[in-house]
Amino acid sequence: MFRKVLIPNRGEIAVRIIRAAHELGIKTVVTLQEAEKESLPAKLSDEVYYFEEGPLSDNYLNIERIIQVAKLYNADCLHPGYGFLSENYELVNACTRNGIIFIGPSAENLRLMGDKQMARSIARDANVSLTQSINGNVEDILAASDSLSYPVLAKAAMGGGGKGMAICNNKDELYEQLPIIANQSQRYFGDDRVYVEQFITHARHIEVQVLADHHGNLIHLYDRECSVQRRFQKIIEEAPACNLPEHVKERIYEDALSLCKKIGYTNAGTVEFIVDEHGQHYFLEMNTRIQVEHCVTEEITGIDLVQWQFKIANDQVLNIHQEEVKANGHAIEMRICAEDVNNNFRPSPGLIKQLIYPESSDVRIETGIEKPTTILPQFDPMIAKLIVKAPDRDQAIKKAIEANNQLIITGIESNNLFINMVLQHKGFKNNKIHTRFCEEHIEELTSNAIDHSLASLAYSLLRFYRVKDRFWRQLPKLSFSMDGNKLQAELISTENPYKILINNELRQASDVKISSHSISFISDEEQRKFYFFESYNTCELIYNQQKCDVIADDLLPPYKPSEREQINKDVQLKAPLPSQIMSVNVKTGQPVKKGDLLLVLEAMKTENRLKAWKDGIIENVHIQKGEQVKLNQLLISYQDEVN
Questions:
Q1: pTM
Q2: 115, 121, 127, 132: CA torsion to nearest 10
Q3: DSSP codes of every residue in 413-479
């Protein structure tokens, strides 16, 4: 087996590779930034190389630099994880030239399948079903726009991970989006080629995990359902896919293996398909690396995919026969991300103030952090993955909700509540899902609010419980504001159950238990558990990922912004997150209308297009293209509205 592996990656996938390597007796070197000295990869790896501050092109995307690090630490192999250079065939060639084994497919495998246009040609030659498409440059495709059947999906030829894609419902949208995608593709992937394919409106995203060695052995490890997405990126994955007929699955397995045989594929990989409402499947792409969602396949098969990546790269024989691979139970993975769901899932980097992970041994937690830390704007916003397994899908959904409710994140926006709303949605429970599920149900999935009646009881119990033995008669009443609503609570009895009058309504709670950051009780015959985080007269309450803020009016009156501060808020545009200015679309003195594009920011591999929120005149532009800006940095000032 190998002696030492370089992992030019970070976060949860770096931790996953470190653990697999250690179980095989392989030493590890991980590459991180100085700001990540307290991260889990830094703690678990045998050695750490810290990149200097700078753009990703100088570190994680710099092949020469990575090879230098591998040689510096005498690593005899390299595992790229996912993202960054994981599917870059030039990295494989560089490894080969320097006597370093690449833990993954061959350079030729990566070259063929990394180019989406070429991959489709290979799939066609292998008799794998494809949607209709047009390849070429922007001008060629736009010239043929009248012949297309809309909607279509415009894609970057070298894209991946949900980047460089847009649905176009008509010719005008195609003319608008295609040049944008070509520019993004050039910036992200160094290649401006694009293509357009038929878009299937209510498609399911089904993928097949494969393993292949250098001795002709090739197997599939069944399928995964990855239809729940936002911005073309998966947020909930399952294994196996439910309510998909076995004969459809068998055809998909057959096509996945045929494609692998066609190119002589080796190591772990994933062949992705879309399936329409009639059960017809179409090849989408092949990911020639370990997937974010590989965990659900490991859970149902008991096969460690990352260890097998090492073994296959070490020329070991894949001694697992297809008939020996069994799918047992049902697994669900939830991607917990730092993002503002109510603002088009915009990334939300910043400082996590409180971080509490589920304590249950039934929950598999994949993360790169173990304590409050800063989520950096230059990287993907995923904080952690929660994975659960149960005998069937219904039980797995229940366990997933319970696990998600026990993951507490404060200080930044996250998608925990959104994940809960999806898991509880009747369409999800009935497996009526497709790739536009979140988009079509967005109002239902984002309209949930905390039960203020229940939250006011929890807060009152919290305050009264602490003085119940000796001092409660000195604090018979509370006065507080909850999300702006004034409330009064009066303690009537501390017997079991507690009796409290809240705005003259009698509420009862029994079996009250309190710990450092949680309070549990029974109310209306149901067990409740609230998490709380206090700071003098303020308290943040969290219940099933629903949140509310409480201000104790009996301790200190709430702060009210001055009239001048309110005016400033209305006439200034500040950076909503640390980011880079990609374009500035206005200049000083220019009149703008509500909805006009002001500028484009990029953070966490995501573009954010900031538009005018009212009619007005640009008083001053405080930034320029290419500039790195901090959170709340002043970007643009408005004059009074146009008369």
A1: 0.85
A2: 100
A3: --SHHHHHHHHH-HHHHTT---TTHHHHTHHHHH-----HHHHHHHHHHHHHHTTTTTTGGG--EEE
Q: Are 312 and 106 in contact (CB under 8 A)?
A: no
- Cross-sheet strand order for the sheet of 152-160: 133-136, 194-198, 152-160, 163-168
User: What phi, psi does 178 have (nearest 5°)?
Assistant: -60, -45
Residue 457 CA to residue 519 CA, distance in Å, equals: 11
Angstrom distance (rounded) from CA 38 to CA 44: 10
In whole angstroms, what is the distance from residue 269 CA to residue 286 CA? 7
Residue 79 and residue 7 in contact, taking contact as beta carbons nearer than 8 Å: yes
Q: Among all chains, which residue has been given the structure tokens 């303020």? A: 538
Counting DSSP H helices and E strands in the chain, the numbers are: 18, 39
Name every residue whose Cβ is closer than 8 Å to that of residue 181 and which is 6 or more positions away in sequence: 154, 155, 156, 164, 165, 166, 194
Instruction: Give tens-digit pLDDT for 232-254.
Output: 899 999 999 999 999 999 999 99
β pairing state of 27-33 and 4-7: parallel
Q: What is the pLDDT of residue 537?
A: 83
**Among 10, 111, 289, 528, the one annotated catalytic:** 289
Cβ proximity of 225 and 242 under 8 Å = yes
The shares of helix, strand and coil residues in the chain, as percent rounded to the nearest 5, are 30, 35, 35
Look at residue 7 in the predicted model and tell me its pLDDT. 98
Phi-psi region of 11 (alpha: psi -120 to 50; beta: other; left: phi over 0): left
DSSP state of 481: E
* pLDDT tens for each residue of 99-109: 999 999 999 99
Classify strands 163-168 and 218-230 as parallel, antiparallel or unpaired: unpaired
Alpha-carbon dihedral sign for residues 628, 632, 634, 635: positive
Domains located in the chain, CATH noted: 4-103 (3.40.50.20), 132-198 (3.30.1490.20), 206-446 (3.30.470.20), 452-552 (3.30.700.30), 563-638 (2.40.50.100)
Nearest in space to 263 (alpha carbons), one of 481, 383, 107: 107
User: Do 108 and 89 meet the contact criterion of CB atoms below 8 Å apart?
Assistant: yes
Q: Does residue 289 carry a catalytic annotation?
A: yes
182 in Cβ contact with 163 (< 8 Å): no
Contact 459, 534 (CB under 8 A): no
